[in-house]
Design a protein that fits this description.
single chain, 8-stranded parallel beta barrel, 8 strands
Length: about 260
């Protein structure tokens, strides 16, 4: 049976909002815990962590074996990182700070095989089941199932969201509200920031492309995301979830007096 994208399958579900989280810690047990918690996808974060490529490779393997869709956020298109994480079996690439159509086109080219793009063929990697997949199935999966998710993180990007989403090879967008709000010097709750986000959501939907966001680890955060119109959402990250649980445990323990 042809391999199918876990992330795309989660987007097609009608009964629940697709839920993800960031993975920033370099211990593969973190990905195991994410899977046991029931997340649909995890974004392995190479932009804001000190993870090595070997650690990313291991995270991807654990995710695939436990039924979690592994997406990797790369810091840039430089250095062949996209090629390496896709060879490692990542279901998709998330690219921060995509402000223009030209940047989205460059990202799409890096993710897709010729003639659509420039990704190199490496079917003896995990992406090709270590050579067990036929060349045809390996190429099909890379072109039809792997996802590219540009991040909308500036006023310029929000204004160009429809054109970015319409680029051949772009499969979803993710709004980065923190950078968007910081870029215009306003709080995330500011009406202008909220207008830019709403415009990006409407623009993405107008061309039939799903759009998501990163929020908190609460039901109210997910509910707020759904109200805005986001199609998927990310709930906190492994490090913050661990820290919050640790603080809650200590706070509970401190209520006991000798």
């Amino acid at each position: 049976m042809p391999r199918r994208s876990l992330f795309r399958a989660a987007l097609r579900r009608a009964d629940a909002v697709p839920l993800g989280t960031w993975v920033k810690l370099p211990a593969v047990e973190s990905m195991e815990l994410v899977a046991l918690a029931g997340f649909d996808f995890a974004v392995i974060d190479l932009e804001h962590s000190a993870m090595s490529m070997e650690t990313v490779h291991r995270h991807i393997g654990v995710a695939l074996l436990t039924g979690v869709a592994p997406i990797v956020r790369v810091p840039s298109l430089d250095g062949g990182i996209v090629q390496r994480v896709l060879d490692a079996g990542a279901e998709g690439i998330m690219l921060p700070h995509v402000d223009t159509v030209a940047q989205a086109q460059a990202a799409a080219a890096a993710v897709r095989f010729a003639p659509r793009g420039t990704r190199g063929v490496g079917s003896t990697s995990r992406a090709g089941a270590w050579g067990a997949l036929s060349r045809e199935e390996y190429l099909r999966y890379g072109d039809e199932e792997v996802v590219l998710i540009p991040q909308i993180e500036s006023a310029e990007a929000a204004s160009a969201a429809a054109a970015i989403a319409a680029v051949d090879g772009v499969d979803a967008l993710l709004v980065g509200a923190a950078d968007l709000s910081t870029g215009i010097g306003r709080a995330e709750s500011d009406p202008e920031v909220q207008r830019l986000i709403a415009d990006a959501v409407a623009a993405s939907h107008a061309v039939g492309v799903p759009i998501g966001n990163a929020g908190g680890a609460t039901a109210s955060s997910v509910e707020a995301s759904v109200r805005v119109g986001f199609d998927f959402t990310m709930m906190s990250n492994d490090a913050s979830l661990l820290g919050a649980a640790a603080r809650a445990a200590v706070d509970a323990g401190r209520t006991v007096r000798r």
